[in-house]
Amino acid sequence: MQWLNAVVQGVLLGGLYALLAAGLSLMFGVMRIVNLAHGVLAMLAAYLGFVFVNNMGVPWYLAILIVVPIMALVGYVLQWGLFNRALNKGGLAPLLVAFGLAVVLTQLLQEIFTADNRRIQIGSLATDSIQVTDAIYLGVFPVLTFIVAVVVIAGVQVFLNSTPLGRAMRAASDDPDTVKLMGIDNRQVYALSTALALATVGLAGMFIGMKTQFSPTYGDLVLIFAFEAVIIGGLGSLWGTLAGGIVLGVAQTLGSQVNPSYGLLVGNLVFLAILAFRPQGLFPKAVTT
Amino acid sequence: MTLLSLSDVDVHYGDFQAIYGLNLHIEEGETLAVIGANGAGKSTMLKTIAGLLTPTSGTVTFDGADISQMAPHKRVPIGIALTPEGRKIFRSLSVEENLKVGAHAKRPGPWNLTTVYEAFPLVADRKDRLGVNLSGGEQQAAAIARALMSNPRLLLLDEVSLGLAPVVVEQIYAALPAITSQGTTVLVVEQDVNQSMKVADRVQCLLEGRTVLEGAPSSLSRDEIAAAYFGI
Amino acid sequence: MSTTMSTEASENQHVKVKRATKSSLGGLGIAIPVLLIMAAGPYIVDRGLQQQLVTLFALIVMATMWNLLAGYGGMVSVGQQAYIGIGAYGLIYLAETIGIDPFLAVPAAIVIAGLLSIPISFLAFRLVGGYFAIGTWVIAEVVKQITMQVDALGAGSGMSLTVLNELSPGRRIAYVYWLSLVGVVLAVLVTYLVMRSRLGLGFTAIRDDSVAASSLGVRVTRSKRIVFVISAMGAALAGSMIALNTLRITPESIYSVNFAAFMIFMVVIGGIGTIEGPIVGAIVFFGLQQWLSDLGTWYLVIIGVLAIVITLFLPRGIWGLISGNGRIRLFPVGYRLVSPLSALSLTGTKELNTTSTEGVSRPD
To answer: Are the beta carbons of A135 and A5 closer than 8 angstroms?
Structure first.
């Protein structure tokens, strides 16, 4: 029954991956930007959390309330200062700028915090668990993470579907020029969507920092996990991304069950298999924009 | 009063000049039809009025103010709305959502979801359908309705008849009186000369970026128009 | 290479198509003596400098090949380190374990990398744009992870190249130097010839409108695959050069994503989409690396910021600035029409038209 437990852990892990991937998916959906700095921005959030919690003694749930708005502001400024300009240049510019940002930010984090592994202190919450059956344990923290992930994805979905700003984002995604004819400044829409995306990244980064040891270069892995969740799930659908995250998580935990060093590799291989045999993902969106 | 005027406007696409010293004016409340063959510069002119293009020289004046360099999204709150060439309905949004996006500028006026649905029953029937699933005629009606949602003073219609069956075109033009009766100024750009002549107070014909004919429809003969249109 | 067509105007006038530019002939005049001097390297400079130059050559190869893939082919890859690793491991495995002469093992390793890149291309081409970029990175990670599981390749601790130890250090370093010099010249030459060919012209069309290009007979996917494979082979060459230079590789070092960062920065700083740009970028990058080496990894921050600034404000890079945005072309790949209406002018030739296969989706 260890296998069943591995599957359960994998599903919960998938929630974290989906939360990570939401921001990546959003930025691509609205602006067609693949933010290569996505992973390291999550690490920025984790380090911010680390400073507040470990160094300043702020309780982790309050630290989240501080870090998330900070990250939203970072997103807003980044979009106006960097990505909007890059979008104007067109072509490869947004991708190259995002990559440059990723490298620069990783190095800066390394200079400030060194490459030592860190972890945000959450006390016993890190290991508390509920025993469901003889073999299956549900960690309190992973369950919490999963619930948060589902709530966030549902929230973003509702926001996109039902609010004027959400509608504006979807319209801008369909047709950036025509949306200007509606009296909407698409640069402002982009900045707000990046703010939203980085708010979710901030949340995700905090949860990673609380769950596991991290360092500046851990951002590379985060980016890969987020990306794989998006592709496995199918472009354009946040719920698909949740499914993709779960598939990835389960693949990794099952792989680890076979041999601890196989976890990441199995996850990557499952991703490649989906890419080979069902490149549109498991739940691709109906309307391609 | 003159609501919109273009003075000596030149517009370029890179090195290519599309419009040469264009002069145009339109009075508040009137309907002006700008006709001409493909490539005459009609859509270019509308895009310049809407702000998607900037004149390389000359001025665009709206309600007395020079708006030549004003960004397109700022022109909507002051009362300019463009129904673009090709309809450009947002594909992944439903018709009703398209209309709501059109109302983003929140200008006061008679047009809201209820009144727009009354004027365009075709659109009301399709209100939950996704943009990508609409026929050409439905898209055109929805696009006009969407532009109305911002309660514009000046409505710009770009090639409404393009790609549509004549019957559908007639239905769409049949809705125009409901718009003009509210006092809205309308600038219609058309290749379909007959339809535009029927609804217009004045007609202006463009050829290769220049005005070649102007006047009230009743004062222009078919031969004059054909000659101007084709540049004979 | 010239084609003559008669114009309508007069039966005695011909329009010629020229490939070379004045500056390219000048460039050739400079290049040959420079190469001769470089070939004399082992007799002129000390061993340490020779090894540094090999590093520079490897960087030039990486930059040139990444530019072929991204600048011309439009495929931004963050995963070329996979082939650097395959080239390095291939070389060491063939030389150490199989016993092939190391200098023959280099072409063999390059061929292996090329062959492996073919099935990989089928996977990678499922993605485009930014997702293609991350996808290639994932593939590189997988290659690294697989390597780390294989004992014959040293698993996690890497491999050493020892068979060259029978040579004196002076000879070994000189031979590696000459091999690397030949390698970098070949890499640049191959890239140049590919881009001068119909393949290169096809890519200009693909960049503008791949559907239209396809309808005109440009084999889009096949062209991309060819470039993908050549680029992989180039990266493998760089990997072999690194292995020969450092004599020891580990999975973490040879498959490092830092190589991807280097490639991108070199090409962006030097000038994307030209042959000269990556070379300039590699030299600038190498210089900055040496000059700022006291600052530790701050150099990467500075270079990264420089790359961002150049992308936004100087999209054609340093070479774009120097060459007056294409007026000087040392490696001309375009086609110019020359009209004999020039008979009426004083200067000699009057260019009617210029078609260039240089440049990437123009961010002007």
So the answer is: yes
Q: Do A170 and B100 touch (CB under 8 A)?
A: no
Kindly report, residue by residue over B186-211, the tens digit of the pLDDT.
999 988 888 888 889 999 998 888 88
The reported pLDDT for the residue numbered C8 is: 46
A101-105, B14-18, C10-14, C280-284: which has the minimum mean pLDDT? C10-14
**What ipTM was predicted for this assembly?**
0.91
pLDDT higher than threshold 70 for residue C252: yes
Task: Give C35's pLDDT tier (boundaries 50, 70, 90).
Answer: confident
Give domain status of residue C227, yes or no: yes
The mean pLDDT value for A159-186 works out to: 94
DSSP state of C69: I
Q: Beta-strand (E) ranges in C235-346?
A: 248-249, 335-339
Q: What is the DSSP letter of A133?
A: S
Find out whether B20 and B30 touch, Cβ atoms under 8 Å.
Answer: no
Nearest residue to B82 via CA among B44, B112, B56, B110: B44
N- to C-terminal Cα distance for chain A? 44
Q: What is the pLDDT of residue C9?
A: 47
DSSP assignment of B70-132 equals --HHHHTTTTEEEE-TT----TTSBHHHHHHHHGGG---SS-SHHHHHHH-HHHHHTTTSBGG
The answer to whether residue A183 neighbours chain B at the CB level (below 8 Å) is yes
Residues 6+ apart with CB under 8 A from A77: none
Measured CA to CA, the distance from residue C45 to residue C58 in angstroms comes to 18
8 A C-beta contact, residue C102 and residue C125? no
- Chain A residue with CA closest to C259: the answer is A103
Chain B residue at shortest CA distance from A285: B92
- Rounded to the nearest integer, the mean pLDDT of chain B is 91
Total residue length of chain A: 289
Could you tell me if residue C104 is inside a domain?
Answer: yes
Local structure of C250: helix, strand or coil:
coil
Per-domain boundaries in chain A: 18-218
Asked whether the beta carbons of residue C131 and residue A227 sit closer than 8 angstroms, the reply is yes
Task: Compute the distance between CA of residue B163 and CA of residue B172 in angstroms, rounded to an integer.
Answer: 13
- The pLDDT of residue A79 is 97
Total-model pTM:
0.87
Residue C344 lies in a domain: no
Picking from A33, A231, A265, the nearest residue to C145 by CB comes out as: A265
CB C209 within 8 A of CB C36: no
Give the residue from chain A lying closest to B103, CA to CA. Answer: A182
Containing domain of residue C176, as a range? 45-258
Number of domains in chain C: 1
- How close is the nearest chain A Cα to the Cα of B146, in Å? 9
Dist. CA A158–CA A154, nearest whole Å = 6
Determine contact: B88 vs chain A, CB below 8 A. yes
pLDDT tens, position by position, C347-358: 333 333 333 333
Please say if the pLDDT value at position C3 is more than 50: no
Identity of the amino acid at C197? S
What letter does residue C244 receive in the DSSP assignment?
A: H
Q: What is the CA radius of gyration of chain B?
A: 17
What pLDDT shows up at residue C359? Answer: 31
Query: Looking at residue C203, what is its pLDDT?
Result: 80
Going by pLDDT thresholds of 50, 70 and 90, the confidence category of residue A252 is: very high
Q: Which CA distances in Å does C89 have to C98, C149, C161, C241?
A: 12, 14, 10, 11
Average pLDDT, chain A: 92
Give the 3-state DSSP-derived string for A20-72, with helices as H, strands as E and coil as C.
Answer: HHHHHHHHHHHHCCCCCCHHHHHHHHHHHHHHHHHHCCCCHHHHHHHHHHHHH
Over residues C211-232, the pLDDT tens digits come to 777 887 778 888 899 999 999 9
Does C340 map to a domain? no
Q: Given an 8 Å threshold on Cβ–Cβ distance, is B91 in contact with A287? A: yes
Using the beta-carbon criterion (under 8 Å), do A89 and C78 form an inter-chain contact?
Answer: no
